[in-house]
Amino acid sequence: MSYQDFKGAVNQATGSRVVEYVARSGYPVNGILHLLIAYLIVRIAMGVSGEADQTGALATIAAQRGGNISLWIVAFGLFALAAWRLAETVLGLHPGECTDADERHSPLLNKLKAFGLALVYCALAVTAIQFALGAHRRGSEQAAGLSARLMQSDAGKAVLVVTGIVIAVIGGYFAYKGASRKFLDDLTVPGGRLITVLGVSGHVAEGAVLSLAGLSLIAASFLSEPARATGLDGAVKALGHGEFGKTILIVAALGFAAYGLYSFALTRYARM
């Protein structure tokens, strides 16, 4: 099969309403994870220990009655979203909107963004499966452990610095996308006041925290302190240090909750 034939097959799949509905099922899953992260951030602001990131959210799900079944549902939704993003990597953004997506030219940057999201969703889905199978490990511990191994060599430190820069840039773009309201281009409707407020607040808050996580990783690499490289959880807890830390954490929680609610809106209104 040639690459053009492969693109044609992918294009045919994205034209299926069933495939589109399955992909959309990932949006409410993403929304629930963000709402749980917001809840965990509030708990940390109140002085309760915990991990305010995706693994913390998955651990919260796992602890509930029927948690294993819920985790498999989460994994399915995330894999569905990842598969659609991989299709966008091949065909460009919103392939479901046209029948000849395999023939059109799409900017490389758009395809790279789609591929990056596919990797994120796949990683979260795999983590959800690990939790469902009983392999529980804190995300911050995993990040710090991997960073410690990479910091043993100059090449490893370079990888961490580049990774930190990428995360910081992604966070900056996310915040810009929210502040400029460019996320409205991803919707099939004009947006309206509620969706716009949720989208702006959610994108800016999550972008700011991601940027801080990236900068923390860069700092940890230069200082050879793997304990600083604890990902999203470490960035959230860093926001809590200082005179107005509690207030900042509450604002961050509201932002993540806003993005969670925005994700529910994407279930119906996202361009596919």
TrEMBL record:
Domain of life, per UniProt, equals: Bacteria
Species: Mycolicibacterium rutilum (Mycobacterium rutilum)
- Domain DUF1206: residue ranges: 26-90, 114-180, 202-269
Q: Where are the transmembrane segments?
A: 31-48, 69-87, 114-134, 155-176, 244-265
Keyword annotations for this protein, in alphabetical order, are:
Membrane, Transmembrane, Transmembrane helix
User: What's the protein name?
Assistant: DUF1206 domain-containing protein
Which Pfam families did the record assign? DUF1206
